[in-house]
């Protein structure tokens, strides 16, 4: 008969890529995790993991079992969370992924507030500028900036964000300030590597696309902001990256007569995550911390 602690050991081992790391995550001795894995395999009558001195590899049976095991454990965790929520208490683990730049600039105080209000929650926050699949990445929820477009996910809106075309005052003195869309093609652009190189502006009832010359491509908004501050070129950035620099006059908002495409911040999680009481509470707390309109859009 399968035991839940064996399933938990299996999932932790796969996600952490080693028994040693899984034992640290679970707070157990390495020998205990190994025995629970062996007991799970005996109960199933198959080998789930191929073990060698260098690495662990999922067998075909292990691969088939993994997604269902993760779903079962999520449902159990959420069922327990619902019971806690009905009793006025939220508790247990909560693993979140978020973009690096936004996490550094804005998540710290907001997460601290949430955890002070819910001291029994054990949060793990991982910052990553690469695409993280909220449905299969092993996280309870993923904070996203931009459109979701994934039917597997539930998306809870946290806040909106304007995108601002900005440059340093020195850059604009040296290169001249663009005043129309066509002018942008003659300027250097600091571009986000994880998006296409296009800049989109709302023109009338449609969209106009500009493809600036690239001075720098990078997958981090803070580095883009710093490049703009150094006078490397124009940058089209969410206001949450540049609101302080704009207020202080270190960056100038460039007005070309049309607003740039905006975006929204969402907390996303798989549809099979059950009631997700902890995620709902986190999204409500983050919305309260960011404000409506969010404090970074009050320039």
TrEMBL record:
Keyword Lipoprotein: no
Keyword Lipoprotein assigned: no
Keywords, sorted A to Z: DNA-binding, Transcription, Transcription regulation
GO BP term (any one): DNA-templated transcription
Family recorded in the similarity comment: Belongs to the LysR transcriptional regulatory family.
Annotated coiled-coil segments of the chain: none
Gene Ontology MF, one: DNA-binding transcription factor activity
Tree of life domain: Bacteria
Ranges where the HTH lysR-type domain occurs: 2-59
Protein name: LysR family transcriptional regulator
